[in-house]
Amino acid sequence: MPTPPIRPHAGALAPHRPATLDERATALWASLPRELVVRFRPVVGRLTQDMIREIQRAVPAYAQPMEGHFGAIMTAGVEQSVLRILDTVGIGGPSDENWAAVFRRLGRVEYGEGRSLDCLQTAYRVGGRVAWRHLAAWGQQQRLPTAMLTVAAEAIFAYVDEISTLSIEGYTAAQAQSAGVVDRGRRRLVELVLSEPPASMAAITKLASTARWRVPDTVAVVVVEQAGEGEPDELTGPHGDHLTDVLLDLDGDPPCLVLSDPGRQLRALRPQLRGRRVCVGPLVPLREAPTSLNWARRAMTLVRRGIIGADGAQVTWCHDHLSTLWLLADEFLVRELLRRTLAPLAELTAKQRARTAETLLAWLETRGSAPEIARRLAIHPQTVRYRMRQVDKLFGDQLTDPDARLDLEIALRADRLLRTAVVAPRPRAEVARVVHR
C-alpha cells in the first residue's frame, strides 16, 4: 500500500519568527505534523551512526575509539540532539533543562580537554548536514510537500545554532571558573612565596600547579610605586601567555611583583605599570624571596626621598646601589656614627661644615695632593690647603689612625647621601624609558 501523503499544518508554510534562538527552533519543529515522528523513528539508528562517523571523519580530535568515556559522551550528545528534535515535532513547548545541560556539559568538557570550541562547532555543523541529507531523502520517499521540507531544513540549522549557543555557555562558564581558581591560587601563592618564615617548598609546588605557575629556581621581587594623587589606585594585571610566569600582589602596600626574569618581564609589563617607578630587589633563590622584597622596599624608600634613582629612570635596580643600601640599612646606627665621628664639625656653620666635610672626604677617598683635590672639587689648591689645615686642627690624630679614617669616610659618605634626601617625596617623574639589565 502506498504511503499516504502528509498534510502540513497551516503554520508550516509560513512559520513565525520568535525572538529567541530556542523559541525559533522549537516553533519550527512544532509547526510540523506529529505523525512524522512515528514514520521517521526507523531511520534514527542509521542516522545516529552516520552522524558519528561523519563527525569523526571531519574532526580529527574526535577520531578516537568509541569505547570508554569519550564514546559515551559523544554518543549521548548525538542521541540527545536527535531525540530533542523528535520530542518537539508537532508539540513544541519550553526547553527541557536536562537536555540543555547536556550541551552545556559538552562545552565544559571541551574546555577541560584543552580544545577550542572550533571542534565542537564543526561537529554540530557536520551533524546538521547529515541530518538534513537523511531527512531530505526520507522526505522524498514519503512524498512530503516541498514547503514542509523547507521548514524542516530551516529547523535543523536553527537547532544547530541553538545547541552551539548552549555549548558556548558551558565553555565560557568553565573558562571563567578556571580563571577564578587560578587567580585565587596565584594570590595565595604570592603570600606563600613572600611569607616569613618561608613556607615549605612542597606547599609552594602544590599550589603552583593549581595556579599554573612554573616554579623558578631564582626570583626578584619588584616593588611598585603607589599611585599619585588623582591617579587610579589599581594596576592592570598582565595579559598574554608570555606573562603567565608573573606573580602579582596588586593590593599590597606597596604593590609588588615576583619575577623570574625581571629584565624581560618588566619590558613586557611596561603598559600595565603606567609609568610608575619600580624598584627591583636582588635576584635570590626562591626561598629567599622575602629578603628580595625587603631590599626592594628599602630601595623604594630611598627613591622617594631622592637619595637614589635621581636620574629619572622608571626602574631602579638594587644591584646598582648595593653600597648605598648597605650604608643606609640602619639609619639609627648611621646617625649615631655621624654624631660621634663628625662631632668636631658641630661648632661650624652649615656652610663651613659642608665645605670642610667635602674636602675631608675628597682627601680620604684619594689621599691626593692639594692640586689633585682641587681639580676634583673645582676649587683653587690654596683653598684646599687652607681647609686641610682646618681639618687637621679639628680631627688631629684621627687622620693617621686607619680605623678612625674608615669611620670618617663611612660617616662622610652617609652624611653626603642623607643631605641629598628631599624633605618630602618628590613627584613621580613622567618617564618613558625602562632601564633594564
UniProtKB/TrEMBL annotation:
Q: What is this protein called?
A: PucR-like helix-turn-helix protein
User: Domain PucR-like N-terminal: where?
Assistant: 29-194
Which InterPro entries does the protein's record reference? CdaR-like_regulators, PucR-like_N, PucR_C-HTH_dom, PucR_C-HTH_sf
Q: Which domain of life is it from?
A: Bacteria
Which classification does the entry list for the species? Answer: Bacteria, Bacillati, Actinomycetota, Actinomycetes, Pseudonocardiales
Annotated coiled-coil positions are none
Domain PucR C-terminal helix-turn-helix spans what residues? 357-414
Which Pfam families does this entry report, sorted A to Z?
HTH_30 (PF13556), PucR-like_N (PF25906)
Which Gene3D superfamilies does this one have? PucR C-terminal helix-turn-helix domain
